[in-house]
Amino acid sequence: MLITYREALNQAMREEMQRDPRVFLIGEEVGYYQGAFKVSKGFVEEFGAERVLDTPITEAGFTGLAIGAAMAGLRPIVELMTFNFGILALDQIVNNAAKVRYMSGGQLSVPMVIRGPGSAAHQLAAQHSQSLEAWFCHVPGLKVVAPATPYDAKGLLKSAIRDDNPVIFMEAQLLYGTKGEVPDHDYTLPIGRAAVTRTGGDVTIVAYSKMALLALEAADALSKEGIEAEVIDLRTLKPLDTDMLLASVKKTGRVVIVEEGWKFCGLGAQIAETIYSEGFDFLDGPIGRVAGEEVPMPYTRPLEDLAIPDLARVMSAVKHLL
Amino acid sequence: MNDFLTLYRDMLLIRRFEEKSAEMYALAKIAGFLHLYIGQEAVAVGCMHAIRPDDYAIAAYRDHGHCLAKGSDPKKVMAELFGKATGLCKGKGGSMHLIDVERNFMGGYAIVGGHLPLAVGLAFASRYRKEDRVVLCFFGDGAVPSGHTHEAFNLAALWNLPVIFVCENNRYGMGTPVEREMLLYKDIAERAKAHGIEAEQVNGMDVLAVKELVTRVVNRMREDPQPFFIEAATYRFMGHSMSDPAHGHYRTKEEVGEARKQDPLILLKTKILQEGLGTEADFKQLERDVIETVTECVKFADESPFPDPSSLHEDVSVE
């Protein structure tokens, strides 16, 4: 069945809420407004206002509430209207959700999902265009997932909801309308596994979320020039699928990492470090990185385009290595 | 033992436990930050005597008293302070993060104001499951101006959640007196009322008054869930933590001496003796029992092993 990324998320949450009465959805505009990006369309009608909770605009408060509810055994899904607003809930996520299991010596767990769009859309300017995944990946106790396709989005969101740990589930506003094949039957995908979305022997392009689609586009264009790139879509950012990364690097010997977030201390730095320390002997040269420019996102389109990785820059980075 | 003597015993256990903790800190058996509950015992004990074992309690970092009053094994609490494997949290939490899920003591939290939304979430879970369990959420006056606090108040009020916010106003947020924390400091309960939460002030040195108020509130809350705010006027007799003396930079010896006249243990003991609810012999016996318990705690903690190095990476995530 060909459906959008948005519909895939909707199906995943709906199926899990039908399956488990402990699952509930909480966030700004998730109910009667049908979700700021219409991801929870039809939910309040189907599940009622007790399980689909519209909140005031208080991210710290409702995220903390959900953490407390998870500590008591419920399985909340927190929708952040965007991860930019998640910064307001960062204390709750980092100091409570990620840590109570450890601080309690394993007595407590926080089975919850915190999801919503991250990264830039079109001209939303500095405060609404951030890719903050590296912040969450830094914190022990959190899992971080960032799917690129409807198939992955559905299978991984269902796994995230069933996971007994806090899972940060990062979507992208520009992906909501993208379409892909999703099976009719119930399925889940394991958290922690990357996917080789294109095989090739000359270079490995590592990316995730929106950038995984750009990497495929770049690989197709490079192929026309006689360069065969292998593309790895990480899908889960933490825990990182080191085995799959190393297997590909062993084959190609060259790596370009593409991410939309800022370069300094970005996720690509960690991925490169993992490859350098565990697969140095496989490498034929330094690892290339294409990342967001080190600026707050500008509003105006020509400057915004310059700040985000694009096809030309990914292709150029690959050619630079060969 | 009648209820009055039980209340006294529970407060005495906290008092002697805390005194022993200070002693162990001086001997470097306990490290890190240590915030003693001495002076505030009537609040935790009065509150816990008004709820059921299946009700939740959650507190800030000055949490030994609440944990003990909720019924945790004092030996495990002391072992946790010592950082031992036999501690409540296997030595991973420490003084500020005592957690005892079996007793529904959901923890001590050390980001001021940060646990109030958690408390509201526990209350949410109770209502979601159509249970009548209530939540006692303890915090200090210093947490009142925090944003988390007000977001928690708003959600609890908006969704009629069964949580009792117990503000232990000990007059200082660390070393800053309450009148320098907020303009409207004389009636902190007004903050909660502004969010539509009913509120009352109580003498937090009077364990009977605390118990009476919380009992009344809880009985109603089980039938008709909605939050309640209590401002318990109290005083800590020791410094904020072991890093500052009981008096000095920010408060005078005379002020502390004056507050000590309202010692919750002395107040209750006087009442018990005056009204013939107990004898000097009863108090002597309680003192002996409690000292014995605390001595056993130290012995247990001292003799327990530190956690095995292999446990470092355990309990980060559910596997």
In terms of topology, how is this protein built?
The complex is a heterodimer of chains A (322) and B (319).
Chain A: E1 2-4, H1 5-19, E2 23-27, H2 43-47, E3 52-54, H3 59-71, E4 75-79, H4 83-86, H5 90-97, H6 100-103, E5 112-118, H7 133-137, E6 143-145, H8 150-162, E7 166-172, E8 179-181, E9 195-198, E10 203-207, H9 210-224, E11 229-233, E12 236-238, H10 242-252, E13 255-262, H11 267-279, E14 288-292, H12 301-307, H13 311-321
Chain B: H1 3-26, H2 41-48, E1 56-59, H3 64-69, H4 74-81, E2 105-108, H5 116-128, E3 135-140, H6 147-158, E4 163-169, E5 172-173, E6 176-177, H7 189-194, E7 198-203, H8 207-223, E8 228-233, H9 253-260, H10 264-274, H11 280-303
Helix pairs in contact in B: 1-2, 1-10, 1-11, 2-8, 4-11, 5-6
β-strand percent of chain B reads: 5-15%
Report helical residue fraction of chain B.
40-55%
> What's the gyration radius of chain A in Å?
19 Å
Shape designation of chain A: globular
CATH superfamily of the largest domain in chain A: Thiamin diphosphate (ThDP)-binding fold, Pyr/PP domains
The most extensive interface between chains reads:
A-B, 41 and 44 residues
| Total domain units of chain A | 2
CATH-level-4 superfamily name of chain B: Thiamin diphosphate (ThDP)-binding fold, Pyr/PP domains
Q: State the domain count of chain B.
A: 1
**Residue share in helices of chain A?**
25-40%
CATH class of chain B: Alpha Beta
> Main β-sheet of chain B, in a few words?
6 strands, parallel
Q: Which structural class should the secondary elements of chain B be placed in? A: alpha/beta
CATH topology of chain B: Rossmann fold
Q: What is the number of E strands of chain A?
A: 14
Mean pLDDT of chain A: 98
